[in-house]
Write a structure and sequence with these properties.
Blueprint: H1 15-19, H2 24-39, H3 45-57, H4 61-77, H5 81-97, H6 101-117, H7 121-137, H8 141-153, H9 160-176, H10 180-196, H11 203-216, H12 220-236, H13 240-256, H14 260-275, H15 282-296, H16 301-375, H17 383-413, H18 417-469
Helix pairs in contact: 2-3, 3-4, 3-5, 4-5, 5-6, 5-7, 6-7, 7-8, 8-9, 9-10, 9-11, 10-11, 11-12, 11-13, 12-13, 13-14, 13-15, 14-15, 15-16, 16-17, 16-18, 17-18
Keywords: Coiled coil, Cytoplasm, Membrane, Repeat, TPR repeat, Transmembrane, Transmembrane helix
Protein name: Tetratricopeptide repeat-containing protein
Family: Belongs to the Rap family.
Length: about 475
């Protein structure tokens, strides 16, 4: 079974495959239909869903990624959380198809978090299965199995197709671990569900898996029938990739049966169909090339060399591709690191701006309060209160300047604690004398004002007393 395409089958939009077989002409027709519908849908949740679907059907990595990122941007703008989850999942699909597994895993987990928050059952089902696929490709079979079983817990009774695909994945893991009884159990369940499902897309994976298992168990005729059914399903859905696996399975079967001509015939067919999906079917070409080369040795050495060279060149290409993937993963990791740094800077800048505003508001209130006491013609203010408010205002001004100057001081002093301390002490040295002068002026004005108020009050009292005496 090839798992590279399994990311699409259990996602939230798996229903698409129930309606549109994955034949090339059907995909093109569906893409045209979706693009026309998108041109008539200017905004809203419907546009997000359309962009995600377009990303699903788009064959190129950049094209599919662009649709998914556009969907994510719009979903965030309109606060469509379910759409955000689907968009993150589809971005993960694009990176998975490009074999950038760390990036795929990162986006799958982001999508899963949102889907759990929004209680999107079908979405959670798809996310868990996609995460399992990544771990499978990374060779972590235990985690792959864990996430497949987590996905199974969210399987809805109506999602027969999705469950059939999922059980096929579970069976494949058990076969990889050489637990053939468990593998056969889950592949049989997958086979039964596919026979109940309206769609038979990806049914070929289960048929190929059953063929492989029966061949290992020595049931060659039964294995042959499964591989033949797989080829029939591959023709129906124009599935070159998995059809190549069916042909390779038959080639291996005929090799065990000592039917060399049939083995060579089917191995060559496997190579032909694998070449149509070379970027994801290189292992088929390597295995089939080696198989043909072995059978030609001593009979047709030229052909033996040709097919051995094909296998070796493809293997070298696979190695080169793995190196490219490693570079892509490092680039992605660095991009994510820079993104996190930028987000942290933006967050800090926003917090600093808010703190500056709070400090400015507090300083304004204290200044207004002092001004009220100084300018009021009726309120006698206590000098100790004014001194206290003056100290508070000094502290607020110092904090305000600290917040305002800190980013620039950091760049100027390269965040040296000693230099930053010296600069702030210098600022304080300038502020304190200024504070004393302002405090003296305010106190002087306050005494004058208080004296005037008391004088006016005394005159009024004297006038009242004189009036009573007369």
């Amino acid at each position: 079974m090839n798992r590279t395409k399994t990311i699409y089958k259990n996602a939230i939009y798996a229903i698409i495959f129930l309606l549109f077989p994955r034949a090339t002409f059907a995909q093109n027709r569906e893409m045209d239909s979706l693009k026309q519908l998108l041109s008539r849908t200017s905004s809203g949740t419907a546009r997000v869903d359309l962009l995600v679907k377009l990303g699903l059907f788009e064959q190129s990595f950049k094209g599919g990624l662009r649709y998914a990122e556009d969907a994510l941007a719009l979903a965030k703008k309109i606060h469509y959380r379910k759409g955000e989850g689907a968009s993150f999942n589809q971005i993960g699909n694009q990176y998975f198809a490009a074999s950038n597994y760390p990036a795929a895993l990162n986006f799958y987990f982001q999508g899963l978090k949102i889907r759990e928050e929004t209680d999107d059952i079908n979405g959670i089902f798809g996310s868990y299965n996609n995460i399992a696929n990544v771990y499978f490709e990374l060779g972590d079979l235990d985690r792959a199995l864990t996430y497949n079983f987590k996905s199974l817990q969210f399987s809805q009774p109506s999602n027969v197709y999705g469950k059939a695909c999922l059980l096929n994945n579970v069976g494949t893991i058990y076969e990889k671990r050489e637990q053939l009884d468990s593998a056969l159990y889950y592949q049989q369940r997958s086979y039964e569900l596919f026979n109940q499902s309206m769609s038979k897309y990806q049914y070929i994976n289960t048929l190929n898996a059953l063929g492989s298992l029966q061949m290992k168990l020595g049931n060659y005729e039964l294995a042959k029938s499964y591989f033949s059914l797989g080829i029939k399903n591959g023709v129906e859905y124009n599935d070159s990739l998995n059809r190549a696996s069916s042909y390779l399975g038959l080639a291996k079967l005929f090799k065990q049966l000592k039917q060399e001509d049939s083995c060579i015939n089917y191995a060559k067919r496997a190579i032909v169909f694998a070449h149509r999906q070379q970027s994801v079917a290189q292992s088929v070409i390597v295995d089939a090339g080696k198989l043909v080369s072995e059978l030609y040795v001593g009979k047709n050495d030229k052909e033996a060399y040709t097919y051995l060279k094909l296998a070796m060149d493809t293997r070298d290409s696979t190695f080169s591709r793995e190196k490219t993937m490693q570079i892509q993963n490092m680039v992605f990791a660095e991009q994510e690191r820079q993104k996190e740094i930028q987000e942290q800077k933006s967050k800090e800048a926003e917090e600093r701006q808010n703190n500056l505003q709070y400090a400015a508001i507090a300083l304004g209130l204290v200044t207004l309060l002092i001004g009220f006491f100084v300018l009021s013609h009726s309120v006698i203010a206590n000098q100790k209160l004014i001194k206290f408010l003056g100290i508070v205002s000094l502290l607020i001004i110092f904090e305000f300047l600290n917040l305002l100057l800190h980013p620039y001081l950091g760049e100027l002093t390269h965040h040296s604690p000693v230099w930053m301390l010296l600069v702030m002490v210098s600022v304080a040295a300038l502020l304190v004398p200024l504070h004393h002068k302002v405090e003296y002026w305010v106190t002087h004005k306050l005494v004058e004002k208080n004296n005037r108020i008391r004088l006016v009050a005394a005159k009024k009292t004297v006038a009242k007393l004189e009036g009573k005496v007369s």
